Amino acid sequence: MLHTCQAVKPITVMRNRVEHEEKETGMPGLGVPELLIILVILIVLFGASRITGLGKALGSSVSEFRRAAKEDDALVSDDTRKDIRS
């Protein structure tokens, strides 16, 4: 019979391995200061008017993708209903 302490040990070992693997990547998270620096660099390179145009294009692309995904889900669910009725 396993005691509670014995059952918990593998979980803590697994958590330590995951944390250790994340530390080895050396990939820091992006914070607010880093994002502001990236934004300033983009404004200098492309200009404010061009960045707003890119933002609008990106927004319309995302909305188009979501609309297409909903249509695809509706088609798949309709086909599934037809298969179940058959």
Can you describe this structure in just a few lines?
This protein is mainly alpha-helical and 86 residues long.
Explain the overall architecture.
There is one protein chain. With 86 residues, the protein is an all-alpha fold. The protein has one domain (4-85). Helix content is 87%, strand content 0%. It has helices at residues 4-25, 32-46, 48-85. Helix 2 crosses helix 3 (48-85). The longest helix is centred in the C-terminal third of the chain and has 38 residues, at 48-85. It is elongated, with a radius of gyration of 25 Å.
Q: What is the average of the pLDDT values?
A: 75
Order of helices and strands: HHH
- Rg (C-alpha, Å): 25 Å
Domain module count: 1
Quote the distance from N terminus to C terminus: 51 Å
The major β-sheet equals: none
Helix content: over 70%
In the predicted model, the low-confidence regions spanning at least 5 consecutive residues are: 18-22
The number of distinct β-strands equals: 0
Large-scale geometry: elongated
Strand content: under 5%
How many separate helices?
Answer: 3
State the secondary-structure class. Answer: mainly alpha
Features:
single chain; 86 residues; mainly alpha; 87% helix
Topology:
Blueprint: H1 4-25, H2 32-46, H3 48-85
